[in-house]
């Protein structure tokens, strides 16, 4: 993943779905037995989205997460929801997780995640979140929260192989040598109602054993797996009241150990880890500072680390890297354009952000990326303008760094 003579360009995974694919997703949900036409449309759509990435200047592309069903043009949860159909042991149904009212409070020394309605950012800005005209959650469809009622297993073999085949065909058709596929982390996969396992640790490690099959299938195909993991940073906001940092890091360490268990023995150079504070459009004043979890992130056995660095809540944190020791063989993929605003970043600003990181870790180890997925979070026209600005900023940074 190291650069040679230019700044490589990638993104955090999700890209805007076409109206045709969204309609096909909805039809599949109502009639899952009719698959032939859907599979043809999906394969063609992946080829098209890889071609669009090439046109936009992306050098490390993916399938846009098109194999992960998106319920609507506005959808903050497709990165997670896709796993509900790939994990055995879940009972589907229940209520929308944003409408759950059962209060789950943490206690000193014993941390538990609260409901979405009781997370601290939402409580602090309750009026904004409950305003029907608010931009924060406008347009999203309800998503039912599954319950763990049996042993967690991996049942998504056909689905992940379909994603692999579609992406490899699209890469070949567009002149790329390789690309990446995102997959859910054990810590995030385990954020479910649990009626089967004795404790959270047992559930998290069961998810690790199951999701390892998906990671391995992607890597064995010669692709890079990007492990999407808001559970390392975003869980901080989902603990109410706010815990001590010591208790939180202890709580998080279980998720780190489970992930390292899931990727044991797999080549680090084909593993990219994506750290996320949550992609919803909200104030984010209760985000954990990057400095408090940076070392925890680096203890994950990945070859590259993707993280938010372009939105106004986290842009200043590039300076934290002055105090960190990034192993020579590893790279970083900081977000230098953001999903959190409709404003399209100026290429000069993008280049400045890239150069900030390069001044610390070296030009060979900075991949220009996005804060989070753009699909389902900003309008498609804006999303593609952001990717073009990202690529242009990377070109400007290249000119300066290799002058």
TrEMBL record:
PANTHER family: METHIONINE SYNTHASE (PTHR43844), SYNTHASE, VITAMIN-B12 INDEPENDENT, PUTATIVE (AFU_ORTHOLOGUE AFUA_3G12060)-RELATED (PTHR43844:SF2). One of its GO terms (molecular function) is 5-methyltetrahydropteroyltriglutamate-homocysteine S-methyltransferase activity. InterPro entries: Met_Synth_C/arc (IPR002629), UROD/MetE-like_sf (IPR038071). This is Methionine synthase, vitamin-B12 independent. CDD domains: CIMS_C_terminal_like (cd03311). SUPFAM superfamilies: UROD/MetE-like. Residues 197-381 form the Cobalamin-independent methionine synthase MetE C-terminal/archaeal domain. One of its GO terms (biological process) is methionine biosynthetic process. It comes from the Bacteria. Coiled coil: none annotated.
């Amino acid at each position: 993943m190291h650069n040679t003579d230019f700044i490589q360009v990638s993104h955090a995974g999700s890209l805007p779905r076409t109206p045709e694919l969204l309609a096909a997703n909805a039809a599949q949900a109502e009639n899952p037995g009719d698959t032939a036409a859907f599979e043809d449309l999906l394969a063609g759509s992946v080829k098209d989205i890889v071609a669009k990435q090439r046109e936009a200047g992306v050098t490390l592309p993916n399938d846009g997460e098109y194999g992960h069903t998106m319920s609507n043009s506005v959808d903050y949860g497709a990165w997670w929801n896709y796993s509900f159909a790939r994990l055995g042991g879940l009972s589907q149904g229940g209520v929308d997780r944003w409408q759950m009212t059962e209060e789950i409070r943490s206690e000193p020394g014993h941390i538990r995640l609260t409901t979405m309605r009781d997370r601290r950012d939402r409580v602090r800005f309750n009026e904004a979140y409950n305003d029907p005209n608010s931009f924060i959650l406008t347009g999203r469809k309800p998503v039912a929260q599954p319950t763990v009622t049996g042993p967690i297993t991996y049942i998504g073999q056909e689905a992940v192989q379909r994603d692999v085949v579609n992406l490899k065909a699209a890469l070949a058709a567009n002149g790329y040598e390789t690309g990446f596929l995102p997959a859910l982390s054990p810590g995030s996969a385990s954020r479910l109602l649990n009626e089967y396992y004795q404790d959270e640790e047992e559930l998290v490690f069961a998810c690790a054993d199951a999701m390892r099959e998906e990671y391995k299938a992607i890597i064995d195909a010669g692709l890079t797996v990007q492990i999407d993991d808001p559970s390392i940073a975003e869980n901080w906001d989902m603990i109410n009241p706010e815990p001590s940092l010591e208790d939180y890091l202890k709580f998080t360490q279980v998720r780190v150990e489970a992930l390292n268990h899931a990727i044991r023995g797999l080549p680090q150079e084909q593993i990219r880890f994506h750290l996320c504070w949550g992609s919803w459009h909200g104030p984010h004043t209760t985000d954990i500072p990057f400095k408090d979890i940076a070392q925890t992130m680096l203890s994950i056995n990945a070859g590259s680390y993707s993280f938010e660095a372009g939105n106004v809540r986290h842009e200043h944190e590039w300076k934290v890297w002055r105090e960190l020791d990034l192993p020579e063989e590893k790279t970083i993929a900081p977000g230098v354009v953001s999903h959190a605003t409709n404003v399209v970043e100026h290429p000069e600003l993008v280049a400045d952000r890239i150069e900030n990181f390069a001044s610390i870790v070296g030009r060979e180890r900075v991949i220009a990326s996005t804060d989070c997925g753009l699909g389902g979070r900003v309008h498609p026209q804006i999303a593609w303008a952001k990717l073009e600005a990202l690529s242009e900023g990377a070109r400007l940074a290249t000119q300066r760094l290799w002058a």
